[in-house]
Amino acid sequence: MTEPNHTSTWGRVKLPAVSAQALGIYAAAVAIFVLLGALNSDFLALSNLRDVAVSACINAIIGLGVTFVIITGGIDLSVGSIASFVGIVSAYLMVNHGVTPLLGLLIGLVVGGACGLVNGVLVTALKLPPFIATLGTMSVFQGCAYVVTNGNPVYNVPSSFVYLLNSYVGGVPIAVVLVLILGIVAWLLLRRTLFGENVIAVGGSQETAWLSGIHVNRIKLGVYGLSGALAGVAGLVLVARINAAQPEGGSPYLLTAIAAAVIGGANLMGGEGRIAGTLVGALILGALTNGLVLLNVPSFYEQIVTGAVVLVAVALDQGAKGWPVLRGRRTEPPVDAKPQKTAGETVGADAP
User: Fold this and answer.
1) In the chain, how many domains are there?
2) How many CA atoms does the CB half-sphere of 67 hold within 13 Å?
3) Pair 224, 69: CB distance under 8 Å
4) Is the C or the N end of the chain the one with fewer CB within 10 Å?
5) 6 in helix, strand or coil?
6) Residue 7: inside a domain, yes or no?
7) HSE-CB for 91 with a 13 A CA cutoff
8) Per the domain annotation, does 145 fall within a domain?
9) How buried is 177 (Cβ within 10 angstroms: 0-12 exposed, 13-18 middle, 19+ buried)?
């Protein structure tokens, strides 16, 4: 098989065209902010907008990793548990074993990435469906978080660690700065590197990607590792925010992080996803949560609103594409399709 000409897009960077769907997402965000500001003038106060941005950070960080997984056609249901596990491990080591905050951050990043790689191995080596694999590890990682401290929270986190992730840079919360940096890096990784090109190719058609020489399993392993690492970062940010580590602290962010990615344009069938869209999706969810509080709406209505927003976002996206599902258009290659090899030809990439 002829080796494909994989050429990175570094050196020819230019601003991408903005799609109609992306413009719709941004317009919806502006409309939501204007509406909430009209309903309660305090919403648009600078201090409150800062609170909205901070509240969106955890969903945004987890959502970035989930976006990569979704683009490949997978799903990661373990990100909330990974965030909890990483937070517990890092806080426990800092409080009980004198680990420095910087080392605690590094350990958390490694633990999160390792958890993600476990998911990747289950999906690639054992060929488990992503939903089943990550549903199982969700329980495993959550159980590990309980085992570390016998189900008890970890308090008295070092003040230097809390300050490190709760300080300000030019009046902007460091968590927001971190999200912006991660967002830029994620965008460059997805849109301007060979890895990102391969991620999109795998999501578009695993069979075609394999036949073109892309190591499909390596790409999948990479995106799950990335998702786990970012979930770990989110877990550390959460610990610093509440000055404690809770065994279930990250669990509530599972569905909202996935929702942020979906609202932002990630297609659960794979092949599509927007880094900027995920960040805007997280901001929309943060604004809605904050706005409902200002309007004195009971907190349990937040789940109804979040679900409704996701349904509307998916419906609008499908409508813009002419409802391919209703027309019966095939969105994935046949799972039983096998590549045909000519005499003496060897396929050099791993099979999906």
Assistant:
1) 1
2) 33
3) yes
4) N
5) coil
6) no
7) 33
8) yes
9) middle
Q: Can you tell me which residue has the tokens 């799972």?
A: 335
Q: For tokens 């901070």, name the residue.
A: 54
Does 337 reside within a domain?
Answer: no
Residue 154 phi, psi (nearest 5): -110, 120
Nearest to 275 by CA among 205, 346, 186, 336: 186
Place of tokens 């000519």: 342
Domain range spanning residue 153?
A: 20-322
CA separation for the pair 90, 99 (Å, rounded): 8
What distances in angstroms separate CA 2 from CA 9, 341, 349, one per listed residue?
21, 12, 12
Return d(Cα 1, Cα 214) in angstroms, integer.
Answer: 12
**3-class DSSP assignment, residue 173:** strand
Question: Which regions of the chain does DSSP assign to beta strands (E)?
Answer: 168-169, 172-173
Residue 313 CA to chain centroid, in angstroms? 17
Which residue in the block uniquely carries the two structure tokens 């999948």?
220
Q: Which residues pair with 168 in a beta bridge?
A: 173
Alpha carbon distance 96, 52 (integer Å): 33
Residue-wise pLDDT tens for the chain (352 aa)? 444 454 444 444 444 556 777 888 899 999 999 999 999 999 999 999 999 999 999 999 999 999 999 999 999 999 999 999 999 999 999 999 999 999 999 999 999 999 999 999 999 999 999 999 999 999 999 999 999 999 999 999 999 999 989 999 998 999 999 999 999 999 999 999 999 999 999 999 999 999 999 999 999 999 999 999 999 999 999 999 999 999 999 999 999 999 999 999 999 899 999 999 999 999 999 999 999 999 999 988 888 988 898 888 778 776 666 655 444 444 444 444 444 444 444 444 455 6
Whether 154 contacts 91, CB under 8 Å? yes
Residue 226 within a domain: yes
The predicted structure's pLDDT at residue 35: 97
